[in-house]
């Protein structure tokens, strides 16, 4: 409600009948006669909200640290990165990008750009199905399971595929703090810590150190080129949204195949480059960000 400088000058210079002003203007004109009125209000609000602000910042720092730990220690996320790297190398066999050892996480957001001949299946669909095959559990083989008696192979494969898909689809829940960290406003966040909450500067420094460390862990020397300090969390958050959608699509594909043929869809392990051989792969992309980095 504080007036702008222009409004303040107009109110101070007004010498007409006060009763002709609106109630808000009359109130503000009276407040302007109080020395440092709005600075005093700011100070009162600061004192009233101090504990709340401190708790908020401490929780924010904890979220950042937890997000860093989740990214570095998530078995499934690292497994997914390995699958993407392996798939990219197989796609680029015979090129100067065919023996890559790493890639920037931004590449994850481009996995939907390369599609198969059907125009729907993408590299990410393939990667999800590959991980599904390895993320399996022991199926129900109890004597009472009638379906298992009649079609044991169908039952086993169906259960394993379903459970594997559930594991992959659960990555978003596993990286919950990463998604929270992606929504933080670093400018406001750091400003409050530097100007107002001096007592928790140590926590701030520690949290930001972990953010820098995890960014360098995944992006190496290129971490210093990041435009936003929390960009790595934003990239993973956006990828998790895409991954969740692909998992739903793979689940629907699997259900349709089961209903139509009484067996779950799987890629033959003996096939050379399954699915990917049918991809229209563009090899003319030279941007480092669009391809795997050797």
Q: What structural class results from the helix and strand content?
A: mainly alpha
- Number of DSSP helical runs: 12
Secondary-structure element order, as H and E? HHHHHHHHHHHH
- Sum up the overall morphology in one term: elongated
Largest sheet: none
CA-based gyration radius:
28 Å
Strand percentage, roughly? under 5%
Query: Uncertain runs with pLDDT below 50, 5 residues or more?
Result: 137-151, 262-294
In helices, the fraction of residues equals: 55-70%
Number of DSSP strands? 0
Estimate the mean pLDDT confidence: 77
Tell me what you see in this structure.
By secondary structure, this protein is mainly α. 61% of the residues lie in helices and 0% in strands. It is built from 12 helices and no strands. The protein is elongated and about 85 Å long. It starts with a helix and ends in a 33-residue tail after the last helix. Belongs to the formin-like family. Class-I subfamily. This is Formin-like protein. InterPro entries: FH2_Formin, FH2_Formin_sf, Formin-like_plant. One of its GO terms (molecular function) is actin filament binding.
Topology:
Elements: H1 5-13, H2 23-31, H3 37-73, H4 75-91, H5 123-134, H6 146-150, H7 152-169, H8 171-174, H9 176-182, H10 186-195, H11 201-219, H12 231-261
GO biological process, one term: actin nucleation
Protein name: Formin-like protein
GO molecular function: actin filament binding
